[in-house]
Amino acid sequence: MAEKTQQAYPSPPENHGYQRSDAESLLSADELKHKKRIKLAIYVAIFVVFQIIVITVISLTVMKVKTPKVRLGNINVQELTSAPTTPSFDTKFTTQIRIKNTNWGPYKFDASTVTFLYQGTAIGQVVIPKSKAGMLSTKKMNVEVSLSSSALSSSNFGTELSSGVLTINSTARLTGKVELMLIMKKKKASTMDCAIAFDLSSKTLKSLRCK
Length: 211
Prior knowledge:
- This protein has helices at residues 22-60, 158-162; strands at 69-72, 76-83, 88-101, 107-109, 112-118, 121-128, 131-133, 137-148, 165-180, 184-199, 204-210.
- Strand 2 (76-83) and strand 3 form a beta hairpin.
- The longest helix is centred in the first third of the chain and has 39 residues, at 22-60.
- The chain has 2 helices and 11 strands; from the N terminus they run H-E-E-E-E-E-E-E-E-H-E-E-E.
- The model has no long low-confidence stretch (mean pLDDT 85).
């Protein structure tokens, strides 16, 4: 009886590689989601910090309302006469009224006056018309001023005229509102107090000090 030959078939190679289980795959997906959440939290935190910095800077600069300043500019003497013996004086000069607004919004002010005084007595005035100083700008108004001692009831200023210097003060007060971002309005009042000294011999301005 013939022997049956048996064919040998090679057995399939064994898989020695690492196969991840379903539990391991799920764990890896959870870790990836966790990392994404951490990144998102970091981005949100950075954005919030940035917003806080921006709001703080705006609050300390843009939204902080400062009081505008009103001052006299350069004075150009046109006429200046004085008589110590009488005594009397007359002067005529041009100057600028300057309203400096350092706010991030316009300053709208009402009409007012600049009063010139000698030893506390008013000897002249000029009108400041209703207007506005723009954002971060200075409103300038040219005016002509005429002053005379005829407005004084006292005549005891001959000694000062003899010294060769005539000192006059000027005061003003402006009231208005600073407008920010078209929604916020804040009332602000500006004051001026200037001391003007004229040299009677040279008939020129000696000094101008404002505060």
